[in-house]
Fold these 4 entries.
Entry 1:
Amino acid sequence: MSDSPGLTVLDRVRLVPVVHLIPANFATQERPFPFGTSPTPEEWDRYWRDCLADAGIVGVTPLRLGSGHVPTRNLLDPKTADPSQAGRILTHLIESRGEGGLALCQDDEVLVEPRCCVDLNNLNDWRYAAGYRDPEWSITWVGHPYVMMRFEGEQLLLSDEEDSPTPQWAVSPDDLLHAVRRAESELEDFAEMLRPAAAVMGGDTPAIVRSLLGLPA
């Protein structure tokens, strides 16, 4: 719903933890890159899945068709997950230093995906945003380019325009904080699903996983 033209009130806001699975990190054979012209989401998805399958990663569902971001809850099913797939996911997570982040969503609509140079250790940035009370524009860290934020009229205003921000979304800080806590719970579930694979690797791996996910030790 909108209070003014171009401003959408996020009354069902979600922060979805996602892992970024880059095709080049998994492909073991040459295949046509679907970017000669602008690929359709379906073309990208086929290419992406084929590359992941080279490394034995199958059955994952991306955040949206055409995306390389996968919600943590879609990566491993604790009831049916192949232990070897859990090991591959864990290895990728460590090698990529937790590449991914939190996707800003309204219900199932994806508003902002994590961007360049951001990782899963992004929870505190959104927790900070939920407590922001300054009327001046400031950065909400989601990678490059930034999302901007400022506080006005008991709502946090967000803009996807870095240079000349214009309010695009408004969200209650309490609702955003609830989304942060829900995301933290999902990350805890993900850490638990990775725990057996982390135990096999041994050493400090379990603690490293929690650090990569932005969770307390």
Entry 2:
Amino acid sequence: MLAVASDFARIIGIEYDRELHELAEKNLAHFMPIHAPNQALELYCLDAAAYELPVMPAVIFIYNSFGAKVIAQVLGRIRQSLATHPRDLWIIYCYPLNANGFDESNFLKLEVATADYRIYRAS
């Protein structure tokens, strides 16, 4: 909902679990017509490590969704995407219990760090 309020050109939601994906669809069906009837929003039920990022500037929001193994895979996809199509990219990682992969990456710069979230920018 925060992304909708921020007026991004395109919002993409990815959920691995079918039940959580369906819940997101239901929530947005109630929210979108009232608060953002013209907002471009796409929801996918799939493995985030297999998702190919759009070739445009982006903000990626992660809510402590993955363990270290999946984070490594997701970071690999992001690194590959940026190498092929350099662009401005930010990552907001809420409740960063597995932040080591982000902190140790050679293509992300830690911009803000608190106990509740970290913000990285691709460099």
Entry 3:
Amino acid sequence: MDGKPYYHIESAQRAIRILKAFQPEHRVWGVTDLSRHLGLSKSVVHRLLLTLEQEGVVQRDVESGAYRLGMEAYHIGMVYLGQWNLPGDSARYLRMLVHDLEMMAHLAVLDAGQVMYVNVVYPPRYAGGEEFSWAGRRQPPIRSGLGKVLLAWMPRARLNQLLEPLAFEPITHRTIADRETFKKHLAQVRKQGYALDDQEISIGWRCVAAPVFDHTRQVTAAISVSATTQQMPLDQIGHVARTVTQSALRLSEQLGYR
């Protein structure tokens, strides 16, 4: 730390622990339950809550006496969200995937019902594949691992609405060409946590994709790697999938996902 002494401020650490205790599954805390949860005395927790309440970071319900996050916590969160730059933030993770797997890496989002490639990173001395993968390209979501991931966590009504006008025409003999079969396939994608495009767009090419979640726990993007079947043989898909999903999770956490 640049030779500077580190000063541990215990009260600051405890206040932060209190704020971190407020989660989507536990939005309201009483002093007794919170002190038990944190392993701190009621008097310490109460004093800290009073200070946080004074600053507007938490607020107390007059009738129950319980605490919840206050408006200042929202303002701080919005400042953090305003720092997001998905293409820029994702670049580091895509480069790591390229370094670790020596495969082409992508970031895509769903825009107007189409998969839009936002960022693409190629390995050094890469040859092949550019004809179907570049930043700015759009394609129907039923024709790629990225599209499968972007659809798999979608509410059923929205999914049906999006799929209705799409033509399930085979591109290769491995393309899923039936709407109901495709929906069942999406359920499997969600269950396993990643999607595989096994030569469904181009014979000789495979793609593994994983979801990127935002702070609302919604899928906001997808990342993937693509390679030839020689570069990504069937016995390597598990390893590739774990690597891609781990990178997607780290990017999700950077976007506020818990």
Entry 4:
Amino acid sequence: MKIKDRIKELRRVKASEILPNPKNWRTHGKDQSDALKGVLAEIGFANAVLARETKEGLMLVDGHLRTETAGDTLIPVLVLDVNEDEADKLLLTLDPLASMAGTNAKALEELLDNVRTDNFAVSSMLAQLREQTVNFNEIDNLTNKDGTETILKSKDDYESATIRQMVLTFNNDQYEMVIEAFAEYCEKNGLSSNTEAVVNLLHEQGYHVNPRQTETD
């Protein structure tokens, strides 16, 4: 298969001078916007947006949120030699193609364990990524309250298990405060884990666990 090179040149252009694509179908919420700002603050621009020449000027094909975020900053732009139909096809397929990629859970876990960020929004995004990509095959057997073991090897196993995991994200100051408070609370009340501390605190506030409803024949 002969593959064309459709990149004409790399330019640095004020983000505010690049036209948004009126056919753009992706939306960007506050969490994504905040996370992008965090990455840009910690690293800066490390990839280029895509655009094509039109009579009105450069029009985006990919990179709308980055362009909106950058304001009047000079950003790297790969100018493509594509017509409107080809640009539409790229606009429609770039994100879905990326989302089709699988996950090497072990490699992802190592990255998550080693990458550090001081930005709250980025930290929240990574915490969600960790929660969404549980490597069931790497989880040790877990003991339920009745003494039986639960082996989580699939999403169905997780859904039917009698245990759950919750991921909370704090900034550095909050984290230190929470850890210190949990340690003191556990010692004062003879508790052995942060989980017990949370449940105990909820009980003190009048909250009680309602048994899960199960289907019967």
